[in-house]
Structure formats: C-alpha cells, structure tokens
Amino acid sequence: MDIEELLPQEPEGEKKEAKQSPLVSLEKDLELYADSIREVGIEIMVEGISANPIFIAHQHVVSIGELILNREELNTNWTIQASTLEEFVEKGIINPEKKALFLKSYKKPEDFMCVFVIVPEGANFIYYPYKPRK
C-alpha cells in the first residue's frame, strides 16, 4: 500500500493557508492529547493487542487504525487514530523485511508516543515524549 492510497485527493480550488509548518500545530495538539494517547497505548499493550502501539496523526481521512481523537469534535487541528506495528506491516506501510530495523529505532512506549504523521507532502514517524508522571 502506498501512502498516497491512505489520503484522499485534495479538492481543487481549496485555499492554501500561509505556509507554517504543520508540526507547530501538531505539537500543540499532542501536548493536549498526551494523557489520552498514553492511556490508549497502555491499553493496547496490557490487553496483549501489541507491544508496539502506533498513533496516526492526520487532517484528512485515512484507512488505517481506529479513531480515538477527532479534531472536529475537539476543535483541534489533528485527528489521532490508534494502530499497531502489526497493522502497519499487514498493510505494507512497513516492509516486513524492515520490521527488525523499525523495532531497533522504536522508543519505549511508556515514555514516547510513536506517531505516524501524514501530511499532503508525505508521511513520517516521529517520537513525542510523554511528560513524566508526578
């Protein structure tokens, strides 16, 4: 599956906003969402679904993962969906031969959220740290 297949085509004539990095608004939303994302990640691991939760951040409609935080309902910029390493391999986003390499770079899910960020220009993985629990 190609990344392009995950994204709908942009409607023509849609106004482009001033070019500010989408990561600025993403960081703000991840800060807001962090506790909820952490809870879902822990649930995925405790229930034995996967040891490697992956969260998808997007502003369109994507066909991977389960919706957990809807930007329209929360009046934010990014929607978050929960997925797993296994689903990413199954859908061909992570090549099965590269799974071990991915796992080497995968950070401890108790400390970092693994986020697959999808923007019109492409997609990439980032690791966003959770704030230490007090």
| Mean pLDDT level | 87
Count every beta strand, where a strand is a DSSP E run of 2 or more residues. 5
So how many helices?
5
Largest sheet, described in full? 5 strands, mixed
What is the radius of gyration? 15 Å
Low confidence ranges:
11-17
Q: Could you spell the SSE succession in H and E letters? A: HHEEHEHHEE
| Count of structural domains | 1
Q: How far apart are the first and last residues' alpha carbons, in Å?
A: 41 Å
Kindly estimate the percentage of residues that lie in beta strands according to DSSP: 15-25%
Q: Shape from CA axes?
A: globular
Helix content: 25-40%
Strand order of the largest sheet: 2-3-1-4-5
Structural class by SSE content: alpha+beta
Overview of the structural elements:
By secondary structure, the protein is α+β, with helices and mostly antiparallel strands. It has one domain. Helices cover 34% and strands 24% of the residues. A five-stranded mixed β-sheet has the order 2-3-1-4-5. The N and C termini lie far apart (41 Å).
